[in-house]
Amino acid sequence: ENLTNKIAAGEVVERPASVVKELVENSLDAGCRDIIVEIEAGGRRLIRVTDDGSGMSREDALLSLERHATSKIASDEDLFALGTLGFRGEALPSIASVSRFSLATRQRGAIEGTEIYAEGGRIKEVKACGMAEGTVITVRNLFFNTPARLKFMKSAETEAGHVGDLLTRLAISRPEVRFTYVNDGKTVFRALNGTMEERVAALLGRTIAGALYPLDSTVEGVAVRGLVARPDVSRSAAGHLYTFINGRFIRDRVVQHAVLQAYRNFLERGRYPVVVLFIQVPAGEVDVNVHPTKHEVRFRQQGVVHDVIQGVIEEALRPTPW
Ligand code: ADP
Ligand code: MG
């Protein structure tokens, strides 16, 4: 059982950023309004995610560390339809199996919380604790018992950068949730809850935010919402491309190609896209049956999706006639 967890950890837990991803997605699924992520030494010494979500009862907290104890569910096809980010119920047991792990949680309305401490996946202590409603998960000494994994970790700076990139993407996708990222005691960003425009301004900077056009069209069942920057502000920056399918961050060749096509005239002049795209397609039109840590999808009708995205962005970039 514990070995199975360690093997699963090899798939789900690649590096500190993958731990943060799983924990933050759980916090979002728990309906939180506020998430604080702290790391130390690139996440190798410490990763802590604090949320004000639903919390768990003692029973559910213990269950959450067992394999396949998901409270969400379902088949991969149901995933998008359900609208939760988690699936498989593997993350917590996997992370716990390769760290010194503490889960403190207090269910909404409960008079006290529960703290569970585990080492290498073995539960060492379960006790009552006083805390605010919500959940605090602390992962120390990641990979302490899997030296091969430890060797693949990059410098603290590189790992912290991956965590920052990941949190930027998650924060862009959920502007209604407050995000705070603290690295080695320094606040890297604090994004207050607000509109998508405000969130993008907080994360990508005011210059870009001041030159964004909103997108909001539905064509052939493909809904495209988001923001594109006027090409004159996106000069020389390598560009920013944030694409989400049904709420999930993806890095997809079809989508990327559509964006670059829409920007093709500007690319020649060294102007790069700054694009935040939320694409919504019916659940049956997209296949996410891929590895949980990859950002790939497959569209049933990729030509249609491509052309709709390109068209909507071209429309937004077209100079307004007067
Ligand atoms: P999954 O997300 O696939 O269900 P996880 O291993 O990530 O599996 O989490 C197991 C279960 O623990 C979740 O289904 C959820 O019920 C509970 N859980 C995990 N994190 C939190 C959290 N931050 N707040 C409330 N419940 C949580
Ligand atoms: Mg999960």
UniProtKB/TrEMBL annotation:
Biological processes, Gene Ontology terms: mismatch repair
Which UniProt key words apply to this protein?
DNA damage, DNA repair
Where do the coiled-coil regions begin and end? Answer: none
What positions does the domain DNA mismatch repair protein S5 occupy? 200-318
The cellular component terms of Gene Ontology attached to this UniProt record, alphabetical and capped at eight, are:
mismatch repair complex
- List GO molecular-function terms, semicolon-separated: ATP binding; ATP hydrolysis activity; ATP-dependent DNA damage sensor activity; mismatched DNA binding
Indicate the family of this protein: Belongs to the DNA mismatch repair MutL/HexB family.
Its annotated function is as follows: This protein is involved in the repair of mismatches in DNA. It is required for dam-dependent methyl-directed DNA mismatch repair. May act as a 'molecular matchmaker', a protein that promotes the formation of a stable complex between two or more DNA-binding proteins in an ATP-dependent manner without itself being part of a final effector complex.
Which named protein is this? DNA mismatch repair protein MutL
Species per Swiss-Prot/TrEMBL record: Geobacter hydrogenophilus
Q: Which residues of the full protein are shown?
A: 10 to 331 of 594
